[in-house]
Amino acid sequence: MAKLTHIDEQGRPRMVDVSAKADTERLAIAEGRVLMSAEALAAITQGRVKKGDVLQIARLAGIQGAKRASEMIPLCHPLPIDGVEVDVEPDSECSVRITARVVTRWRTGVEMEALTAVTAAALTVYDMVKAIDRGMRIEGVRLLEKRGGRSGAWRAEH
Question: What is the pTM of this model?
Answer without folding.
Answer: 0.93
